[in-house]
């Protein structure tokens, strides 16, 4: 009887040790599962954004950047080709009175700043274009200053670019590769402050440099 009593504490310690081992293994398994689940969720978040913006947004017919004229806010006339200079272009048709347009430009401006911080600012040119007349330039300036926008802005005085690209709703974003081909046409607001979106833009830059 005494010998059995002596063995009992050892058996209890063995059972506790096994229980602790199982508990640690379960915690490790849960941790691995949580990490894997987070990766899946992150992948889904990316996929939720990219198909809507970059896959469904692809145009089926190939517009090319034209040599039609636009003007900067000082009234100097330029063409899209002059401004693009064989760079990737993000063209945004917007209006100073449209809040979605303004929010879109704020997001694009932050992407522009991120690219500049990575010494990639010269690889992409961002072109906000509104169709106001010369007399309405003060309206654009007020919107620019009120919302803290610093991107260079342009106006389509003759409405030629709005007609050429068939702009029927704003904001409208066109992403143009270095060959001058419109590869994405995105209608409405989209969130640019997203790693997946920025990476996709950089992949277009890299393709253009190959």
What would the average pLDDT be, to the nearest integer? 75
Number of helices: 6
Strand order of the largest sheet: 2-1-5-4-3-6-7
**Poorly predicted regions:** 39-52
Question: What is the C-level CATH assignment of the largest domain?
Answer: Alpha Beta
CATH level-3 fold name of the largest domain:
Glutaredoxin
CATH homologous superfamily descriptor of the largest domain: Glutaredoxin
The chain-level structural class is alpha/beta
Count of the domains: 2
Basic shape = globular
At CATH's second level, what is the architecture of the largest domain? 3-Layer(aba) Sandwich
Number of strands: 7
**Alpha-carbon distance between the two ends:** 84 Å
- Strand content is 15-25%
Q: In percent, how helical is the residue content?
A: 40-55%
What is the subunit arrangement here?
A: single chain
Tell me about this structure.
This protein is of the alpha/beta class and 210 residues long. It is built from 6 helices and 7 strands; from the N terminus they run αββαβαβαβαββα. The chain has helices spanning 2-55, 80-84, 99-117, 137-146, 160-164, 195-209; strands at 69-72, 77-79, 88-93, 124-130, 154-155, 172-176, 182-187. α1 (2-55) crosses α6 (195-209). The protein is globular. Residues 39-52 have low confidence and may be disordered.
């Amino acid at each position: 009887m005494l010998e059995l009593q002596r063995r009992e504490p050892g058996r209890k310690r063995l059972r506790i040790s096994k229980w602790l081992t199982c508990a640690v293994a379960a915690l490790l398994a849960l941790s691995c599962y949580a990490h894997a689940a987070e990766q899946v969720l992150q992948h889904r978040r990316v996929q939720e954004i990219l198909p809507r913006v970059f896959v469904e947004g692809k145009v089926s017919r190939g517009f090319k950047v034209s040599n039609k004229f636009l003007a900067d806010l000082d009234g100097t006339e330029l063409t899209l080709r002059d401004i693009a200079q064989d760079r990737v272009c993000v063209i945004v048709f917007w209006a100073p009175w449209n809040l979605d347009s303004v929010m879109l430009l704020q997001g694009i401006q932050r992407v522009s700043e991120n690219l500049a911080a990575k010494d990639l600012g010269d690889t992409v040119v961002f072109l906000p274009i509104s169709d106001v007349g010369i007399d309405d330039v003060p309206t654009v300036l007020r919107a620019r200053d009120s919302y803290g926008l610093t991107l260079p802005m342009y106006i389509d005085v003759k409405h030629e670019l709005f007609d050429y690209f068939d702009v029927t709703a704003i904001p409208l974003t066109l992403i143009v590769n270095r060959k001058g081909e419109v590869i994405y046409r995105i209608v409405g607001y989209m969130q640019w402050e997203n790693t997946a979106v920025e990476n996709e833009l950089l992949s277009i830059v890299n393709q253009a440099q190959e």
